[in-house]
Structures are given as C-alpha cells and as structure tokens.
Specification:
By secondary structure, this protein is an alpha/beta fold.
C-alpha cells in the first residue's frame, strides 16, 4: 500500500511548486508594478491573497475560518500563529483580510521566483545578527505608520515533527507593546496533517484556522514582554491540545 502512495506524494509535492509558480509567472508584470511603490502594497496584498487561494484550492484543500473576534479593517495588529507547514503562509493570507507584512527569515529570499517578491515585500531578519533584529523594529514601525499590520510566526522556525508548539521568541511581543497594537493569536489546526515538512505525508482535505480573542497591549510596558509571550503561547497551545483531544 505504501509503495502505491509514494508516487502520489512525489507528484503532490511537485504539483505544489507548480501551483506556487504559475500565478507568479502569469501575473509577473502586474506584480512588478504593485511592488514598485510602498503605498501600493495593499494592492499587492490582494494579489497575494488570490495567489494563496489558488494554491490551496489547487492542492485540494478546503478551508474553514473560525473567528472568535474579527479584526477591524481600519486598525493595525500583530498576527501570530503556530508554524508547521509550507502552506502556513497561504492560509494566513486567506485567513486575514487586513493588509499585513510578514516578518520572516532571510533564507526564504533564495527560493527562485518566490524569493524575488518575498525579499521586496516582507521584513527579513537574520536571527544570528543583533543588527538585523534591530532593523526589523525600524522597518516594522514604518509599515505600521502606513496603516498596515505585522505577521510573525513566533516559534522562529518549524519545530520537529513531534513538537506540538515550540517556545516563542520575544520579538513579536516586544514590537506589539512598543507600538501598542493588539496581539491576534491564530491557530492552524490541520496544516501539519495536510502538508507537513515530512515528504511522504499529507493529502487533500480540510484546513481550519481559528482567530482567537485579541490580547490587548495598550496598558503594557516593555517589561511585560515575556508575560505577554507566555500568555499568547498558552492560548494557541490550549487550542491545539483541544484539537488533539477530539481525535
């Protein structure tokens, strides 16, 4: 039975990369125009949401967005979520309608085609460089002043397969306090099952994303960073444990 599935998994992974590339190639001239000025970023964001939906539907996923609270289209937020899959980026774009900018590791900029737009629209960070981490705060501040939101996967990477939720880094929570914007915890409940980094695994099916109640920061000082981080992680971890208990 496994020998029958291996060709499917190989083709399924190849199909994913085809779906990632095709909209970028087809829309390349429009995408170039959309990133030529920072104030046009909301238009680029709409194109990115189309790209994300195209990939998810093309992979045979149907997504369900559960909202305990709905973001105000006129407000800025810090969106944080668990990180388990390559499709986390796509599901985040589908889940959140507020234009936001990803803060992500610089290594992704090396991916052909995708990396070209990634490094021009996201805030890149080299976690081994203190200078790079400080630069993130400056770029995030500029984007927030433009009325955008920020999205960070606070685990700082994809944890080992057996880890439900890794420890969080401080950056997202320090930024949220400094700029007095709410934390919006988001839980991806099925991404690891559907399309994890384990090559011979996954397949079409349901993807659930849940927007949890917001966590206010307007009364907090930077000294509360670790408390805010722990509270945010606990909210996401509790939701993941509930999901596992229902199996």
């Amino acid at each position: 039975m496994q020998s029958i599935k291996y060709p499917f998994w190989i083709l399924y992974r190849v199909w994913f990369y085809i779906l990632v590339a095709v909209p970028i190639i087809v829309l390349f001239p429009v995408l170039i125009v959309s990133i030529s000025k920072e104030r046009w970023y909301p238009f680029f964001f709409k194109l990115a949401r189309f790209w994300a939906k195209f990939i998810l539907i093309g992979m045979g996923f149907y997504y369900i967005i559960i909202k305990d609270e709905t973001p105000n289209p006129q407000a800025s937020y810090m969106f944080v979520a668990n990180h388990t899959s390559m499709i986390d980026i796509m599901l985040m774009l589908v889940t959140v309608k507020n234009p936001f900018v990803f803060v992500g590791k610089k290594e992704l900029a090396k991916i052909p085609l995708f990396g070209f737009f990634y490094k021009r629209t996201c805030i890149l960070v080299d976690r081994s460089s203190p200078e790079s981490r400080r630069a993130v705060f400056m770029r995030a501040q500029r984007r927030l002043k433009q009325g955008l939101s920020i999205c960070i996967f606070p685990e700082g990477g994809v944890p080992e397969e057996h880890v439900i939720l890794d420890e969080f880094k401080d950056g997202a929570f320090r930024l949220a306090i400094n700029h007095q914007i709410p934390i919006v915890p988001i839980v991806f409940l099925d991404n690891k099952k559907r399309f994890s980094y384990t090559f011979f695994s996954g397949g079409p099916g349901k993807l659930r994303a849940r927007i949890m109640p917001f966590i206010a920061t307007n009364t907090l000082k930077v000294e509360a960073t670790k408390t805010l981080k722990a509270k945010s992680r606990a909210v996401i971890l509790k939701a993941l444990h509930k999901k596992d208990q229902k199996k």
